[in-house]
Amino acid sequence: MTMPMNLLEQMLNKRITLLLKDNRELEGKLVGYDDYMNLVLEDTEERTPELVRRLGTVVLRGNNVVRISLK
Amino acid sequence: MTMPMNLLEQMLNKRITLLLKDNRELEGKLVGYDDYMNLVLEDTEERTPELVRRLGTVVLRGNNVVRISLK
Amino acid sequence: MTMPMNLLEQMLNKRITLLLKDNRELEGKLVGYDDYMNLVLEDTEERTPELVRRLGTVVLRGNNVVRISLK
Amino acid sequence: MTMPMNLLEQMLNKRITLLLKDNRELEGKLVGYDDYMNLVLEDTEERTPELVRRLGTVVLRGNNVVRISLK
Amino acid sequence: MTMPMNLLEQMLNKRITLLLKDNRELEGKLVGYDDYMNLVLEDTEERTPELVRRLGTVVLRGNNVVRISLK
Amino acid sequence: MTMPMNLLEQMLNKRITLLLKDNRELEGKLVGYDDYMNLVLEDTEERTPELVRRLGTVVLRGNNVVRISLK
Amino acid sequence: MTMPMNLLEQMLNKRITLLLKDNRELEGKLVGYDDYMNLVLEDTEERTPELVRRLGTVVLRGNNVVRISLK
Question: What is the ipTM of this complex?
Fold first, then answer.
């Protein structure tokens, strides 16, 4: 069995894709997280249906996270 | 009586179908979960009305989960 | 006085109708529940305005549940 | 001063009208409740703008309740 | 400094106007409340853009309350 | 470092502008608050896209608050 | 590993860009935060699709925050 938090640990320092509740997708290197699934990404790129934006280092609030996968 | 968490245990290593709050459906092998119903799926396929996407291994946040069933 | 959780107990092994927040209705045999009103249904049939679907055994997350009644 | 929970107690075995977050109204005899305002109604009638439906005995989840009044 | 709960205490037995999340406004005499801002109103009148309705004594669930003011 | 709650303390007895989740803006003198960011305003004026309304003294529930700034 | 709260600490006294749930973006100097991700910004500028507004010092409630990045 792979606990969700253990998978996050294995994803550290890898590029991930993140889907948020408002349908926004972010891609970046996962460099940190906490128990609420608040996340820290580096070299982040955000994609909405209209736009791609480079954001550098970002904090994402866990309660907006829908799914996390390896890039 | 089958407790919801016990059914998740029985579903481990089986392919499940997952409905999320935004109407997204994912199909994949359940390999992990925790008390908040955060889930880990492998060989995941995501279906929205517009799109099918292969996502590999994913973490899903429990508070977006609506229903879980065996494939 | 009938406590809500006691009524769920009386509904065990009976067919129930379940309304979810997204207006989805499920009908199935209630075989389990927990304190968060997470539910386990067997021989489940799901009805949306567009579709009837047979789903077998399902876990429903309690925070999406609106109402539960005997079939 | 009338505490909200005390008013629920006084409403026991009386017919009440219940408004839910999705604008659904239910009318029925209140036969039980708990600290989360989960409710049990008997001889329940549900009204949406489109439909009146007889539902018998129902459990309503408290976090969908907006207002409760005597019929 | 006037703590929000102290203001509710001062509003007891006075007519208040209540705005709910769904944009519904209720006017009535505040006769009770609890720590979750669940409220009890008497001689309640409810106004939606379409309708005025007399509701008598009502329980309102605190998590739908937006603002409370003296009539 | 200015903790959010300390800034609220500094705003006491000053006129503030408040944005709520439903896009409503209120302006008034902050006379109280609690740990949930429930607020008490005096001489309150509410602005929606359609309307300006004088409301006197109001309680606002913290979980609808988006931003607070000095007028 | 960079914990989300540690990154906020590193962002102190720097200009950040903040995305809120209602799609509002704020830019300002981060001068404070707490465990709920309530934030204090100075020299804040708010951008919605329609408008840019100067707001001075503001408190933002954490539960509306989606993402935080360095300007």
Answer: 0.92
